Amino acid sequence: METQTLGFSHFIGQSDAVGKFLLFVLLVMSIASWYLIVVKAIRGHLERKRSKEFLDFFWNAKSLDQVHDAVAAHRAEEPFSHLAHHAITARDHHARFGASRLEEAGTASEFLTRTIRKVIDEETTKMESGLSVLASVGSTAPFVGLFGTVWGVYHALVSIGMSGAGTLDKVAGPVGEALIMTGVGLAVAIPAVLGYNYLVRSNRVVLGALDAFAHDLFAFLTTGQQFAGGGNNVVKLKTGA
Predict the structure, then answer these.
(1) CA dihedral sign, ordered 163, 166, 169, 174
(2) Is the CB of residue 29 less than 8 Å from the CB of residue 188?
């Protein structure tokens, strides 16, 4: 009859403060990882959709003034419009005021290069925010669960030794319960690792397209001519993810 009471609820009920704390830590890890995976996946999907729409508009616009006015009116809510807005603003600012400050020193193309690089760094930082949490959860959750298992096995064996009942049914039940913590740790870690890999891959595709767009935009702003095949960024962004 005693073996019928064994299970997850019984394991929680007989766990000490350390076991409950480790389970709470795994629960927090799971909530944090799932929150980041869902939020960043939805945000990334929406940004890719808006980016494709902006690139379609950009390469079909009649002038940079039309692009600048449209971005200023609707705000830069995704990486490509953000980059275009700052690049066009930087070119116009340098042409109007010249190198009046240290950060504006150099030629117009050098100032434009620094501006583009700064925007790309900002977008990279924004995309990578939270990924360190997923990486930490994916690498540490199994060990937290393993520690909980070791702790549970230790207490189970101590209790069995003190009771003097060393039969198989008295040993297998408590030890099997302790393995629950290892399973919980793996259940927390696996989604975090898969989510991390998916987000890193998605970010790499977007950043690759953004870098290609930056080269086209730089050439267009400095020479007034578009690279042949500049519109291919739309295809890369659409199919890369």
Answers:
(1) positive
(2) yes
End-to-end CA distance of the chain: 55
Distance in angstroms (rounded) separating the CA atoms of residues 46 and 130: 18
User: What distance in Å separates the CA atoms of residue 89 and residue 70, rounded to the nearest whole number?
Assistant: 13
Global confidence as pTM: 0.77
- The torsion defined by the Cα of 120, 122, 126 and 131, in degrees rounded to 10, comes to 80
Pair 26, 18: CB distance under 8 Å: no
pLDDT tens, residue by residue, 113-138? 888 999 999 999 999 998 999 999 99
Tokens of 17: 């403060």
- Give the tokens for residue 173: 């039940």
Distance CA 120, CA 133 (A): 22
Identify the helix (H) or strand (E) that includes residue 34: helix 17-60
Q: Tokens at residue 64, please?
A: 């940079």
Which structure tokens are listed for 82?
């953000």
